[in-house]
Design goal:
2 copies of one chain form a homodimer. By secondary structure, chain A is of the alpha/beta class. In chain A, about 45% of the residues lie in helices and about 10% in strands. Chain A has 18 helices and 14 strands. In chain A, the strands form 3 sheets. In chain A, strands 2-8-7-6-5-3-4 form a 7-stranded mixed beta sheet, with helices on both faces. In chain A, strands 9, 10, 11, 13 and 14 form a 5-stranded antiparallel beta sheet that branches. In chain A, strand 5, helix 11 and strand 6 form a beta-alpha-beta unit. At the A-B interface, helix 1, helix 2, helix 4, helix 8 and helix 9 of A face helix 1, helix 2, helix 4, helix 8 and helix 9 of B. Chains A, B: One of its GO terms (molecular function) is pyridoxal phosphate binding. Chains A, B: Its cofactor is pyridoxal 5'-phosphate.
Chain lengths: ~525, ~525
């Protein structure tokens, strides 16, 4: 910008009282000539945000959006009829139906006069009776209207409900509503914590590789250092404590303080589920080195194999009980959950929570202040957290339907996951771990030299090249492994297994064979 | 933290294969002894967030929350029966009813099977017919479910609706859906922009004083420099262009680049409404110095006097037309609006939008990326933006009721605002500007030396002291002027005029007289 000097200053008083040509009212201004300044470019912006990357909605999904428009305008020019959205876990965009009970309750919260029509609506079969009862309870807790700001931390009664759920889930390890913060999805909880805990450029944030790119993006935005710990693909993407501790020691040596360890369980994009033992080892490292554990547990209900989900909180309490000398008493753990995943799939409703365990009051106050600046999370999203965690109970009118719906959604996901997995198993040049949890597969692509060279000549990463060709040929939109992180020289693709039907899987198979034939060395 | 060294590293492989004592399953861990690390304190956190202040939910509102609990437990110990929440513009927490049409539509969006019961619900009087029609249109635009993530920028059809509203509001100055970003309230829009535009500690952000503390909090969090321009209380808190330009020139001289000017119109907390002429002057400064205009226009429908709201966009287009040499073509303007204010008052639903005008494509892409990382704003909030801006039209079944409700809410606010204003006018030691817009009064307190000394002896700002005493005596919760900024040596209090009834106003009057009698010099 060309700096201005005092001589250039406009004479407001003069111009508005004397020189200005009035056109009748106050609708004209000084006509003094000036050089318009230039517009801002990327160089003028916060560099940390410029540098942040988020592949889930990166180049390939953006191209898919363009193709979608093209499809609606000139469908004949493309070799497919529809875009298959497999880049983002967004079940209700595909054919997943919301849970009936949840939506009946929230519709009443949105329009409480429906309470006066209970008899009519139950008789006609539009609603179940327990939906009215639950809505009345929630309305009372919320204070009468979902249109009012709640406390920054969230509606107290809903936080009590969340605490009750955690206590049940963790087999009696109690939780307190004072430790629950209701947030707009889990993403908001993660960014609150990382924005506070990323102190400066000597702060290290440990993340699994591969990981959900919200974490790398946040670390970049908050100007801290990413400390990767690599998951072991060959053993089903397992987490190795020794790898983590080595990273801690190495980081401290080079002056980076490991401040947070992000644990995604079940894993995104890997689907791996952590054992009790592995979690205990991670907590031991956290206790020993004073590292905050950020547990992304949003897929805790998406478990498909004969494995069990152990919450980090439950394991922590167990360790604390087993170590009466207090070795684990200082562990600081934040566990996040969301209405977007599980069988709820209410992504667009932005419900979520975090439970804070072991943080000092000082730190909690800072988190509360940050939440206060955002005022509150969406109140209907808060209600959906309650409804996801506390479904109708046996004997309630909605119970059977609700159980059936939850089971069906769960089984559907499992079936699709395995169908895709089985397909990959048959194919040349693709290696896939068995799905354990979450809603993704992250197969490894064994690409030929020819394919890698072709990619390079186009200025693309090899897996990016594969995903582009997959999209161009079949309309299937995925994300290359490079967006999640992977070991040097390996290539992957992340796909959800949410898309309905089987045709897209067949299309992928056909594409894959042709791709491998074309680029065979 | 005591640094660890390699010698201290646990022997994971050994411990998990040999030394560990199994208790039957994988539920035990290495029993190696270690010193637990200390917990984090404020010094370990991001200093910019520690330093941020947000008085709207600061010390006095927090005390009010405690008193509320005390009231429910031991009501006889307090000199009042209820807390009057006047610290935050949260109409539906008080007695304001949501607009019927909006809520009917959103309830159907939440539970689309209601569409099958249209006849029954219209016949019984539960719903108006046009609610079903509108819900069907919105559902189609949304893609079938409010539970799916939308595009990061928001649902396209709703953005079209917003653009149509802006075009009507601005008397034919057209708007484009491509320029609209739907956001979780206006706060989210403001923080997106400021986080991107606060490049570093040489970036200056101009804000009016007094201001809504989201702005000062964000500037602190994003590590830039606050450049205040003082509003002129005596002329009804008017904005003076010469004051702004002087600040620009002074800042450039000391090496701080003025990058953004925040304009709150109608003002919060002042309620002042800017004239066309003043807006044009601000835009001239923006054009000349290349300063982005961040227009907080969330109170555009809360106008009480015979004044007219001019959007900055409309004024900009008018200037651009009047200056064919392009002096104003590079102006970069972001205008924000919200469902929380106006007669909508849907605070807890987190609906909002920003319109971006004149930004380079490069900058827009960064804004879009940041929105993508948050995935999307709550979809029902997006729908409420549409419903707020496009109410039923003449001839629609809901038209008359909707007009009546909107008028009643508006008039209620106006009546209460003037009632409070008239009360302040009668009182000693308090000077209040006439309410023009928004939902607040920001009277000046002329405090005695005795009161100021008493405050100092308690370690409080004088206006903070007044607000504490007001809360302790009457249960009325307000925010001291120091939370919004004020000229050195002046003291104010911000109160909403939303609380129902007149008793709290009488209580305030009684308190004020007693306070002034007690601390008379």
């Amino acid at each position: 910008m060309i700096l201005s000097n005092e001589q250039k200053q406009m004479h407001w008083t003069t111009s508005s009282s004397k020189k200005r040509q009035h056109t009748g009212d106050d609708s004209t201004v000084s006509g003094l000539a000036f050089e318009p300044a230039r517009k801002l470019g990327a160089d003028d912006l916060n560099k940390n945000i410029i540098d942040a990357e988020y592949a889930v909605r990166g180049a390939i999904p953006m191209k898919a959006e363009e193709l979608e428009i093209q499809l609606s305008q000139q469908p004949d020019l493309l070799p497919f009829n529809a875009i298959t959205v497999a880049n983002i876990g967004n079940p209700q965009q595909l054919d997943q139906k919301p849970l009936t009970f949840s939506r009946q309750v929230v519709s009443i919260l949105q329009y409480p006069p429906l309470l006066d029509y209970e008899e009519q609506l139950v008789t006609s079969g539009a609603y179940k009776r327990d939906a009215f009862k639950r809505a009345a309870v929630l309305l009372e807790q919320i204070g009468g209207s979902v249109g009012a700001y709640s406390l920054a931390q969230g509606v107290y009664g809903i936080r009590e409900s969340v605490a009750d759920f955690i206590t049940r889930r963790d087999e009696g390890e109690t939780a307190s509503p004072d430790d629950i913060f209701l947030t707009d999805g889990a993403s908001k909880a993660a960014t609150y914590l990382l924005s506070i805990l990323c102190r400066d450029s000597s702060t290290g944030i440990m993340i699994p590789i591969p990981q959900y790119p919200l974490y790398t993006a946040s670390i970049t935005m908050y100007n801290s250092v990413m400390l990767p710990y690599y998951l072991d693909e060959e053993s089903g993407w397992s987490t190795k404590a020794e790898e983590i501790e080595q990273q801690v020691i190495d980081s401290i040596k080079r002056g980076v303080t490991p401040r947070v360890i992000v644990v995604i369980n079940p894993g995104n994009p890997t689907g791996a589920v952590l054992s009790f033992d592995t979690i205990a080892q991670i907590l031991t490292i956290a206790a020993k080195y004073g590292i905050v554990v950020l547990a992304d547990e949003v897929y805790q209900n998406n478990i498909y194999k004969g494995v069990k989900f152990h919450s980090m909180k439950k394991v922590l309490r167990s360790l604390q009980r087993d170590h009466p000398n207090g070795e684990y008493d200082n562990v600081q753990l934040a566990s996040m959950h969301s209405t977007s995943k599980g069988v709820s799939g209410e992504c667009g409703q932005r419900g979520g929570y975090m439970e804070l365990v072991g943080f000092s009051n000082e730190v909690r106050q800072v988190i509360l202040k940050l939440a206060s600046i955002s005022i509150c999370s969406v109140v209907t999203g808060q209600a959906l957290v309650d409804l996801m965690l506390n479904p109708p109970r046996e004997g309630d009118d909605s119970y059977e339907l609700d159980v059936r719906e939850r089971k069906e959604i769960h089984n559907n996901m499992k079936t699709r996951g395995y169908l895709l997995y089985d397909t990959f198993q048959k194919l040349e040049g693709i290696e896939c771990q068995e799905p354990q949890g979450a809603m993704y597969l992250f197969p490894k692509l064994l690409l030929s030299k020819k394919a890698i060279e072709e990619a390079k000549s186009l200025g693309l990463q090899p897996d990016e090249f594969y995903c582009h060709r997959l999209l161009d040929t079949t309309g299937i939109c995925t994300v290359p492994g490079s967006g999640f992180g992977q070991k040097e020289g390996t290539y992957h693709v992340r796909t959800t297994f949410l898309a309905p039907g089987t045709q897209w899987i067949k299309d992928w198979e056909t594409f894959h064979k042709a791709f491998y034939d074309k680029y065979r060395d």
